[in-house]
Design a protein that fits this description.
Elements lengths: L2 H6 L6 E7 L5 H10 L13 E6 L2 E7 L6 H9 L4 E7 L6 H13 L7 E7 L9 H7 L8 E6 L8 H13 L1
Parallel strand pairs: 1-3, 1-4, 4-5, 5-6
Antiparallel strand pairs: 2-3
Bound molecules: guanosine-3'-monophosphate-5'-diphosphate and magnesium ion.
Magnesium ion binds next to α2.
Length: about 180
């Protein structure tokens, strides 16, 4: 059984979560880590920016948001049924910081439900020249979010932080 499913196992209700962020942030790698408990090489699938994983009691939608012009349209299919959002950022890529910030704001602005739980993952923390966590908190304006949120450093390569991040996330569903 996957690590994530085992965290969710004791829940009585179903959960839909959405993992999103720019392409190359590490979303698929994190998903595979949650499924298998270790790092797996991913093969980029050209032209596909969405995958869905159906597990008993748990559905996970994964979106690559780069280049998405109409966020409201795209969110229509998941907006009402998504209980939680995981927004993944490659914190080693300063070149795409502003793009990540833009899609983060579009994504959270498009949320209608203030009960949604938002987990921000600063991935690739094993790499050098990382953007400071406080910069994300300030520039993503996290303290103004109307949602319950938390931010974690992770590496889907070493596994650092993955457990703590998803433990927090799943615990929030239990409240
Ligand atoms: P995406 O699903 O968000 O588009 P992927 O991103 O999961 O496909 O990952 C994109 C690339 O980043 C992959 O490398 C993957 O191995 C790498 N990656 C993901 N997470 C981490 C991490 O925490 N640390 C490091 N160092 N690399 C990571 P390739 O080389 O296959 O493009
Ligand atoms: Mg992917």
């Amino acid at each position: 059984m996957s690590f994530l499913l085992s965290l969710f196992k004791s829940r009585t209700r179903n959960a839909d979560i959405t993992i999103c962020g720019l392409d190359d942030a590490g979303k698929t790698t994190i998903l595979r880590f949650l499924e298998t408990g270790h790092f797996n090489e991913t093969t980029p699938t050209m032209g596909v920016n969405r995958e869905t994983l159906h597990l008993p009691g748990l559905q996970i939608n994964v979106f690559d948001l780069a280049g998405q012009e109409d966020f409201r349209n795209m969110w229509h299919s998941v907006n009402e049924k998504s209980d939680g959002i995981v927004f993944v950022v490659d914190r080693s890529n300063a070149m795409r910081f502003n793009e990540a910030k833009y899609v983060f704001q579009q994504t959270t602005n498009a949320q209608l439900d203030n009960d949604v739980i938002v987990l921000i993952i600063l991935n690739k923390s094993d790499l050098p020249d990382l953007i400071d966590k406080s910069q994300f908190i300030n520039e993503f304006d996290l303290h103004s979010l109307p949602f319950k949120w938390a931010i974690f450093d992770t590496s889907a390569k070493t596994g650092e932080g993955i457990f703590d991040a998803f433990k927090w996330f799943v615990d929030e569903f239990m409240r």
